[in-house]
Amino acid sequence: MSQMFMEKVKSTGLAHLSYILGHQGQAAVIDPRRDFQIYIDIARQNECRITHIFETHRNEDYIIGSLDLARRTRAGIYHGHAIDFNYGNPVHEGDTFNLGDIELAVLETPGHTFESISLVLRDKSFGNQPVGVFTGDLLFIGSVGRTDFFPDLLKEVAGLQYDGIFEKILPLGDQVILYPGHGAGSVCGSGMAEREFSTLGFERENNPDLKIHPRDEFIRYKIGQKPEQPPYFKKMEEYNQYGAPSMQTLPEPDPLSAEQFEKAMAEGMLVVDTRSPESFAGAFIPGSMAIPLDMIAAYAGYFLSYDRKIGLIVESPNDIDLAVRYLIRLGFDNITGYLSGGMYTWETAGKHYDRIAAVHVDELVRRYETDYDFILLDVREEEEIEQSGMFPGALHIFLGALPDQIDKVPRDKPVTTFCGSGKRAIIASSILKRHGFETVEDNLGSMAACKEAGCPIVK
Amino acid sequence: MSQMFMEKVKSTGLAHLSYILGHQGQAAVIDPRRDFQIYIDIARQNECRITHIFETHRNEDYIIGSLDLARRTRAGIYHGHAIDFNYGNPVHEGDTFNLGDIELAVLETPGHTFESISLVLRDKSFGNQPVGVFTGDLLFIGSVGRTDFFPDLLKEVAGLQYDGIFEKILPLGDQVILYPGHGAGSVCGSGMAEREFSTLGFERENNPDLKIHPRDEFIRYKIGQKPEQPPYFKKMEEYNQYGAPSMQTLPEPDPLSAEQFEKAMAEGMLVVDTRSPESFAGAFIPGSMAIPLDMIAAYAGYFLSYDRKIGLIVESPNDIDLAVRYLIRLGFDNITGYLSGGMYTWETAGKHYDRIAAVHVDELVRRYETDYDFILLDVREEEEIEQSGMFPGALHIFLGALPDQIDKVPRDKPVTTFCGSGKRAIIASSILKRHGFETVEDNLGSMAACKEAGCPIVK
Amino acid sequence: MSQMFMEKVKSTGLAHLSYILGHQGQAAVIDPRRDFQIYIDIARQNECRITHIFETHRNEDYIIGSLDLARRTRAGIYHGHAIDFNYGNPVHEGDTFNLGDIELAVLETPGHTFESISLVLRDKSFGNQPVGVFTGDLLFIGSVGRTDFFPDLLKEVAGLQYDGIFEKILPLGDQVILYPGHGAGSVCGSGMAEREFSTLGFERENNPDLKIHPRDEFIRYKIGQKPEQPPYFKKMEEYNQYGAPSMQTLPEPDPLSAEQFEKAMAEGMLVVDTRSPESFAGAFIPGSMAIPLDMIAAYAGYFLSYDRKIGLIVESPNDIDLAVRYLIRLGFDNITGYLSGGMYTWETAGKHYDRIAAVHVDELVRRYETDYDFILLDVREEEEIEQSGMFPGALHIFLGALPDQIDKVPRDKPVTTFCGSGKRAIIASSILKRHGFETVEDNLGSMAACKEAGCPIVK
Amino acid sequence: MSQMFMEKVKSTGLAHLSYILGHQGQAAVIDPRRDFQIYIDIARQNECRITHIFETHRNEDYIIGSLDLARRTRAGIYHGHAIDFNYGNPVHEGDTFNLGDIELAVLETPGHTFESISLVLRDKSFGNQPVGVFTGDLLFIGSVGRTDFFPDLLKEVAGLQYDGIFEKILPLGDQVILYPGHGAGSVCGSGMAEREFSTLGFERENNPDLKIHPRDEFIRYKIGQKPEQPPYFKKMEEYNQYGAPSMQTLPEPDPLSAEQFEKAMAEGMLVVDTRSPESFAGAFIPGSMAIPLDMIAAYAGYFLSYDRKIGLIVESPNDIDLAVRYLIRLGFDNITGYLSGGMYTWETAGKHYDRIAAVHVDELVRRYETDYDFILLDVREEEEIEQSGMFPGALHIFLGALPDQIDKVPRDKPVTTFCGSGKRAIIASSILKRHGFETVEDNLGSMAACKEAGCPIVK
């Protein structure tokens, strides 16, 4: 029968980590993503049937793939009992599940959410000492999970997080390998390590968040964090508690000609341009929304709506697959078409396009030194600004809030958008353009370039 | 033993068509490309050994892969006898080669070049009637090969082309399937059909070039054509007669940081930016050369040199493989690095970048109507201008000649580059920028957009 | 917009040829197979949406994928009007469909079946002359379609076939490329060429079936053919007229341990052993049915039933995918498991296995010369025996009829099975073993080896 | 610049584990295999250049790929200084190497061999605590490396092994992840865990070999182990010290017809039949050598010679790639052909084949109980017999020694081969057949089946 195996499935964008492990013909998946075929493929390669699906918690940043995966595999779904799920089976502290010699034991570890569980991994052919633990969004490599989802209970939740880590997880032993629910780049925590392998012993010594003691100090620290909450989180929570629309195969957007694309826009299709900031700046379709491919996971949830058709602009048709996956993981399923041939098709059809001038940081400095009258619009998060300061005189509006606060941006001056590196700046530029701003520029490089160039910075 | 098979291998860029066919354990390749692994793979799938390699002629637009493929497979190489090759075996009219039931018979068909041969395909298990013919650059689908390579013998060569087609190829019969050496998009002919399948019977009736009679008229028609000859053709002819440098594995350019890339530029590395026109327009490295990925095959040979290191800028690392293949097919092997992370890396390192404004055709019309003083630089080929006319007042310099004729472009006015669709315009823009022109714009859409928009045109 | 393209999709086993072609964003599929994802993938690569699905006729040898493909793509389905389909749209002589410059025009060509149509391919950018034709099962390369499906109308049907070929297809012109519905190895015709490319001109001269004249002689010839009709054909006809069960994703058989497999057998699962004849002969599970992987398409339809679970034995897990595809194309969807680890799992679990001795043809000759008393059971088709004769004294029962005629095989003597090459012989051996025969041997090599070895043969 | 990454490359057969890890554009490979392209591919995906290659020791069971990989990448090669390598750079205790934030530090850990080193992994962005260690063949998951390579120094070597583990490796801390040079199934140790992830803390508690104390007891235990040493080890040691023949691309064996294959055999080609035991038993070519695909790594080194051409028999052409890789990793590069179409080709050509009867363990028991006179030839290793006993009356000759000790096997009785599961038994059967034994049978299932069936066993 089949050998013991474990594979980590890393989904870029959300830096979501899911796991599949198995032995002797049976496999379990932990926190599957919605585009679930990859687990079927891995199970097949390992000659296992997926019999168990675990959810470490009701995820808020993506649609969990449990239900669709279970429809294909007949696997059982298991999750914490602290909330009422519309499907699956509640588990309790100490419940164990066996796949050949593998044992997964449930630890109830509320904090990030109340129903959060961790799963302790044992190899029963080597005794009872734990060898790994799946911690969901409780403990990450180099960081801990966010605890801001219950505004009325911030203190309680942060305390539970502390207790779960220090009283349940770390006592499993230094030898335990850590398998968290997210890696660096996730919106579910900040400060995670680039390194994707660690142990409880290493984290105990080196994870900066685990050095904050005592409990009250940790609670204060966590309460002090104010990560952004994209509005789509509410939809994810609803879907993940009551069941999302089934999706056994991915949407296949139609290739559209310039005429068809233009017509669909006129009928209400929202255009998401996934090209790079440079491409968008070079030429874009008026009315389109810039969300570079690798920013979809983090920012589409602020700007797209669930009841509008989506049309894509891509640099290459190869990007469609990833764009679709990023969107459907957030529940934006209604991707009806893409501009076949890309901007070239649009341009050679004689359709109108617009452009955004890229402004180098040296030019910002020159403007600053010459008192040039313009708006530098900084769209970073509050926390980033606290940490690294701002360019003098910049106007700060967080990117996710820009559509609602667009009236705070003066319309009588040129506006240059600014962020950490230029990617969010192009999103902001496209929002301004969609709102009719005339002279919009984009500072490619932004704060990263500022630091290299030695700009003036105010804190 | 293995079944009869035939596969066409289409190499984009040059629209080069090569073929592999075989039966009962043996296979032949016709006009292999330099990155030859694909033939090995197909032969393996069909359980055949490649025993024969045919060259329809000494190709002038790419390095033939015969020698390297023969080094791997021990196959014999066969080509026409009218020039002295430094390798392989000369063949003569009527020579036949057998692979199981497949027979390939040599027809000497000079014209495109003097040593050109065609190969007649028979299935000996079905008698002696030809079922296919490989015509190299003699006859294409919807067109015929160019005959301008021997300026002193234009008339003779065009006449030979006529004779080969009408006295040797077409008499094989209407039932013969046509397998030419190039498809639509090749620089080896113009007016080829998009359709990639045809027969001699269909061409006899529908190929416009085959309706030009009598012989003298055909010769006049061919002499009247003046396709461009990129300077690298000479190198290809030399390589393909005497043997190109061996390349058993493709070059693997190093990922370079912004600092490393800048340093390499300072030491003489030429930067080829393969991104789209929009991306380049949005932001580019001063001094770099724009050659969009799908333009490398047709235009790199005008601008790159064989003794300089090449560094790549790519939109995505996925593009590196194709960029490298396109370059090495033209003999540009010295691809030493690429900017890891792309322009984002450059921008966030605070390095300088420049931009080119995209100008819509409506703006051109407005400028024309208001007598705005600027240069519209049209870089299309002579033939294109004859066919479709020019924007009034435009300055015409063919793209390939631009570096040599750069002094013809006034430096005291804004210059807007213009071509068929905007892709060559961005190349021209980058050349102007490299030569120190200040205000350079690019007309994305160019003549294609003009036609849609109803611009004024002069013939 | 997208370039013109055409791809042939060859499905081994049934040697079924389907086609996808398109231009400018639209594509059509002709005779799609049930596991249809490949068409979606090709359309995506070519940036086309599948808008049309054509069925040349109500296929009898496989489940057509039209309905499932249409469910995914929203394409229209089109077929002949001579029978009432439960879905799709009837077409009539002269109806045309356009995909960019591609035109497909309907020819009604009854014969193989009454509702059979052919589709004439034109490239409208090159005038009105046909360049290709899709003939379904009317005309093949080197052969013509079978005409035995209407036992009461044999003469009429053969005459229609003749008329369709000689009055409608061949008059399209010698220059027309032939795209048939099957290639060599199909059960829908015999004598097809290995060569997969041809034209009407080449067939007119070289297809042996097209040399049979006049019409009456052709009819006599066709009536004289007696190809076998596997019993599953009836099911296919029903499915293809009224709609088969939907299958959007392929079945995923469970990996089973020896115990699980044994239990499932006891509960009625039929075991299909897809390994090679040598493997089966070496060791097999008592009660299992040998159908080597490449024989499933042609023979599973004789032996499997639609209401029984199927369990697989495979040489390698890599074979499961193909075994599943072969089975579901015939409608055998209920593939519930496979023996994980293969026979090794069974053997090391101590379970019982049996073997079949491989007997060389020299031994047959020796037995013949020494009057050894045994049964040589020849399971080939009637036609094969007529063509190549039999080993002296052999008992002939066609493989497909063996289960029904098992009582004709004496049980008191050793039985050696025999066919064309040994593959059907192993199927026959497994049938004998399932029916309790004690001493069963298999002549690997069979008639092919006989010919090489110079056996005695009687006609 | 590129993110931190680490990948384990597992090469089946030898269960060889190599690693590639990198950060910020640089990557290191530890113990690369000879077919090295996979490291190039992984480095490219991660946008890193391979700059360092480490050898934990002069490997004895496979050809290290360092030299060929360095030829492609210009990387430096690093290994222990205790022997004189003909290439690369010696390293010493405490030497460190940096790849972005990754630090690799050298620990000298002689034992398995004198020049063995371990590499301690730190993430410098998280301080100085080790997070991983690459231990080569010193410490495995669930076991330790063998110490039998220096017969005169067994005690010294085992002591060094003990010291390295307990004084250098374990003191790195429980939190350190273990990255050994082999996994379960390797010939470089026994008793390894199926589980492929562990930490020093987990091993300290659960690795049975690490519970053997004090030092003298550990030495006694190690000296008591007597693993087999295949003769090809000597060649590997020579190659890995002085440099193996360069192999930039894998050998491509020719497809051969039955006639060509037979002729090559007559001229001295050794036939290696990689099919399953059942397939070989069903029919095989007289004179061929059975080595099932997954047994090549462990057993080809006993039977093949470096100066003879090798011809393959495969179940499927898909197996050729793996067979070639397994063979060239052991230095058997001269793989000139394979029988195209497999045994079917041989059989239908009328060539002679032989068979081996598969005998079930129940039959063995029956024979035992009825005093049937035959030889049960048990070819397992000494250690296996000590652990699990033997079937009563069996003759024991270790498989690797069988050719030399063939005279110990009586020729006047039927011989049934026996091993752990039947795979080595088929190899033994083929050796007997090659030596002219008449009646040879194979006990598929062997000791594994015996245990399930409850055979008599003597210890």
Structural description of this entry:
4 copies of one chain form a homotetramer. Chain A is globular. Chain A is α/β, with parallel strands linked by helices. Chain A has a 6-stranded mixed sheet, with helices on one face. The first copy, chain A, starts with a strand and ends in a 6-residue tail after the last helix. The first copy, chain A, has 15 helices and 23 strands. The first copy, chain A, has helices spanning 37-45, 66-73, 154-169, 200-206, 215-224, 232-242, 258-266, 277-282, 296-303, 318-329, 343-348, 361-369, 382-388, 423-434, 446-453; strands at residues 5-11, 16-23, 26-30, 49-54, 76-80, 89-91, 96-99, 102-108, 117-123, 132-136, 139-140, 143-144, 177-180, 254-256, 270-273, 289-290, 310-313, 335-339, 357-358, 375-378, 395-396, 415-418, 440-442. In chain A, helix 3 (154-169) crosses helix 5 (215-224). Chain A has 3 domains: 5-242, Ribonuclease Z/Hydroxyacylglutathione hydrolase-like (Metallo-beta-lactamase, Chain A); 254-348, Rhodanese-like domain (Oxidized Rhodanese, domain 1, 3-Layer(aba) Sandwich), CATH 3.40.250.10; 357-453, Oxidized Rhodanese, domain 1, CATH 3.40.250. The B-C interface holds B 3-6, 23, 101, 123, 125-127, 129, 131-132, 142, 173-177, 184, 193-202, 204-206 and C 3-6, 23, 101, 123, 125-127, 129, 131-132, 142, 173-177, 184, 193-202, 204-206.
